[in-house]
Amino acid sequence: MKIKSVLMRSLTVGTAAAAAAVTLPAQAMAAPATVHYLCPVTTPEGNPLVLKYDRGFDVTAPAKVKPSATFTVALKGDPINPLPNINKKVWNLKMVYQLPQGASYVRHSLTGGSNLGASRQAVQVNGSRITLSATGPFKAGEDAFLPTLNVVLKAPSSSGALVTSVAGTSYDDPGFRWTSEDPADGTAHDLQCYPDPAAPVELSRTVVG
């Protein structure tokens, strides 16, 4: 992805989510988390640069389950709202989650979502990863709320901790990505990001026992 150097500082985004307090069952846990993504790009001069991009999540999961029990992890991200100074619109968005090691995938569903326009949402499961994709397009400067991804899992028969996080390890293995249109010249660029390995973030933790 190439980006005008005068706009690079503007892509460092910190997203803060403010949520009303919700009363949940004793066994449930709802926790906001901010994931710090690294997004490799190339300057017009051909130099590599890694941009920082923060995304907020509000994930609900039980704090504790019995061995071999089924439980649900509800994955909800902050709204999509591309910066209008460097994006006209974005499309082909993907959000990749890492399911807990040791847990078995059972099924999933999508609930909610708003201001999605003609976007079509889909979910793909590949081993211990699950991907929520949206075709878009999403207009810059407007909030688009993707649906909550509800994943039903089965706990293992042994005790331990089941942790959910975002996936991704590099530009070629992104955990978050979209394609954007530059408002200045109409060219399309891919933004592909992965979570900062120096600052790992747990979205949920469920203890089996």
Put the structure in a nutshell:
This protein is mostly beta strands and 209 residues long. It contains no helices and 14 strands.
Describe, in plain words, how this protein is organized in 3D.
The chain has 209 residues and is an all-beta fold. It has a single domain, classed as Immunoglobulin-like (Sandwich). The protein is 0% helix and 50% strand. It has no helices and 14 strands. The protein has strands spanning 28-42, 48-62, 64-65, 70-77, 89-98, 104-111, 121-126, 129-134, 138-139, 148-154, 160-166, 176-181, 188-195, 204-208. A hairpin with a 2-residue loop joins strand 7 (121-126) and strand 8 (129-134).
Over the alpha carbons, how many angstroms does the gyration radius reach?
A: 18 Å
CATH level-two architecture: Sandwich
Percent strand equals: over 45%
Shape label: globular
Q: Distance N terminus to C terminus?
A: 46 Å
Major sheet? 14 strands, mixed
